[in-house]
Amino acid sequence: MNNARRDGLLLAASAAIGMAIMNSPWSGAFQQWLELSVQVGVGGYVLNKPLELWINDFLMAIFFLLVGVEIKHEWLHGALSTPQARVLPFGAALGGMALPALIFVGINWSQPVNLAGWAIPAATDIAFAIGLMAIAAPGTRAVLLAFLTAVAVLDDLGAIIVIALFYTDQLSKAMLGFAAAAVAVLFILSSLRVRRVAPYVVVGLVLWLCVLKSGVHATLAGVVLGLFLPASRDGGGPAEQVAHAIKPWISWLILPLFGVVNAGVSLAGFTPSALLQPVTLGIAAGLLLGKPAGILLGTWVASRFGGGLPDGLRLRDYVPVACFCGIGFTMALFIATLAFAPGTPAADASKLGVLLGTCCAFLVGAACARLAPAPRAQASR
Fold first, then answer.
1. What are the extents of the domains in the chain?
2. Pick from 3, 25, 117, 60: which is nearest to 262 by CA?
C-alpha cells in the first residue's frame, strides 16, 4: 500500500474513531481531557492553554509548515513551476472555492449568524483527496493526478489567505510588530542561504508565539516558515530536510489526532431533519455540488485563455478529479473550528456537513472514475 492510500485510510479511521468516542459513554471524559490545562514556559514566562488548543494551534502549525513547503516546491519545481502549468489549476481552484462559498451563502442567507461558515466548503483536503483517489481510482492518469495536486495546493493557499483575512480575533499591533520582525529575520536567513535548520526552527517558534498573541491564527506561522525555508532541486535543502523529518509525525500522529478531536459529533437525538439544517446542507451541497461544478467551470474558462486542455484530454475526463476535490475533511474541519464556537449547534452542524459532503464526494468520485471512458490517445504530431 503506497503512502497516499495509507494516509487516506488513517484519516478515515480517525474520523470514525472521533464519531465513536463522541457517541460513547466516554464522551464526557474525552471533553474533559481536551479541556485539560497544559503549561509550557520558563520562569515567569508561561503559556497556559487547554490541550485542544495545543492540538489545533500548535500541532496543526507543523502541518501548515509542511503545506508551506509543498506550495513552494510545487511553485518552483513541481506542477506549478511554469506560467502555462498554472493557468488550468488556478482557474479550477478559483472556481472550486467561489462556487461552494456562494452555495453556502445562498442557503444560509436568511440566517446571518451562520454566514461565518461561508469558507468551510471552499477547502479541499489534499492528503485525504489524493489518498482516497489512490484507493478508489488507482488507474488515474499521471496528468490528472498532477492537476489534482496543483488544484489542492492552490486551494490550500487560498484557504490560508481566507484564514488570515477573515478568521482573526482582535489584533494586537505590538505582537504583529514582533511577528513582522521575526519574518524579517527569516527573510535574512533565507537570503543568505543559511542551510542549518536550527536557526529557522528557533525563529519559527518565536514567530508562532507572536502570531498566537497577535490575534491572527497561529497556524499561519507554520506556512510563513515553510515558504522561507530554502529549497533545492536535489532535495537536500533545509525545506526538504524539514519536510522529510516531519512528514511521518504528520501522517501518523498530527492529522489523525486532529481528526479524532475535531471530526466527532454527538448523534444523540439525531433525526434526518438535522441533515437539512442550513449549515449542514450548505456545507454538504458546497462540497458535493459546488466543488466539482466550480472546478469544471474554472477549468473550462481557463482553457479558453490558456491554449486549451492537454492533448488527449477532454473536460469530461476531469469530472472524477473534480468530484474528489469535494473531499474537505481536515481543512474544512479546521475552518469550522474558527467559524463557530466549539459545542454550539452550528459547530456540530458544520462537522456533520463536512463528513456528509466528504463521504458523498468520495462515493460520487469513485463512481465517476469507474464509469469514465478511457482517455483518447495523444494526437500525433
1. 48-167+217-371
2. 60
Distance CA 378, CA 345 (A): 52
Is pLDDT above 70 for 124? yes
237-277 confidence digits (pLDDT tens): 889 999 999 999 998 999 899 989 888 877 776 778 778 89
* Torsion-angle region of 232 (φ positive above 0: left; ψ -120 to 50: alpha; else: beta): beta
| CATH match of 48-167+217-371 with 1.20.1530.10 | yes
- Round the average pLDDT of the chain to a whole number and report it: 87
Q: Give the mean model confidence (pLDDT) for residues 353-369.
A: 92
Does pLDDT of 101 surpass 50? yes
Predicted structure pTM score: 0.84
The DSSP output letter for 24 is S
Whether residue 45 is predicted with pLDDT greater than 80 in this model: the reply is no
H/E run at residue 48: strand 45-50
pLDDT of residue 76: 84
Examine the pLDDT at 2 and tell me if it is beyond 80: no
Question: Is-contact 288 369, C-beta < 8 A?
Answer: no
Q: What is the 3-state secondary structure (H, E, C) of the chain?
A: CCHHHHHHHHHHHHHHHHHHHHCCCCHHHHHHHHCCEEEEEECCEEEEEEHHHHHHHHHHHHHHHHHHHHHHHHHHCCCCCCHHHHHHHHHHHHHHHHHHHHHHHHHHCCCHHHHHHCCHHHCCCHHHHHHHHHHHCCCCCHHHHHHHHHHHHHHHHHHHHHHHHHCCCCCCHHHHHHHHHHHHHHHHHHHCCCCCHHHHHHHHHHHHHHHHHHCCCCCHHHHHHHHHCCCCCCCCCHHHHHHHHHHHHHHHHHHHHHHHHHHCCCCCCCCHHHHHCHHHHHHHHHHHHHHHHHHHHHHHHHHHHCCCCCCCCCHHHHHHHHHHCCCCHHHHHHHHHHHCCCCCHHHHHHHHHHHHHHHHHHHHHHHHHHHCCCCCCCCCC
Report pLDDT digits (tens) over 62-92. 998 998 898 888 888 877 877 777 888 999 9
